[in-house]
Amino acid sequence: YFGICFLTIGILLIMRIQSLQNDPEMNERKPFLLLFSCLVLVSGIFCFFLDENWVIILSPLEKAPLYIIISMSLNFCVIFSIVDLINYFLGFFQTSNSKTFVETPKQIVVSLILSIIMGLFYGIIFSIFDLEDQRGRQLDIQLIQDEYYCIPIASFLGFIGGFVNELLRIKGDYIPIIFSKNEDPFNDEI
């Protein structure tokens, strides 16, 4: 089921990215988005591999790359689907000159980086607990342990991502960082 979904989403993402306008700002985004779209396609293929019995004999360490790639793709799809839905629905309530939720290239890069970090973490945790091979009560216990580790990290990264996204949305395409010397009257030697 997930394999078919990932393949379909990957193809739709590639088609959508190819239909984007040709302007310099969009050209900066396209390589990143195409890379992640291909990652979603590869994840769809990996889902079919994980459905086979030969995967059961692999150790958790050997399964980790598969789980990491699949969880990165899942995070990418979920994050960008939610962002697109929020942008779409907020468009009904905003004026035409209002900024959307995520629109600058830096905001997209922040979302991509969060997808990578969260996917890496989820894939490692899923492979450490070897949840695919668990059944019954043991699976319930392992899922609770998995949540124990994943929820705090996801909450923290979500908070950081939301904060940085809002900063970038308010400031626009750049955040000026200005370092200036504080003039302190007590700095002079006596």
Automatic annotation (TrEMBL):
The chain crosses the membrane at residues 32-54, 66-88, 108-129. Keywords: Membrane, Signal, Transmembrane, Transmembrane helix. Residues 1-19 form the signal peptide. This is Uncharacterized protein. It comes from Ichthyophthirius multifiliis (White spot disease agent). The lineage of its organism: Eukaryota, Sar, Alveolata, Ciliophora, Intramacronucleata.
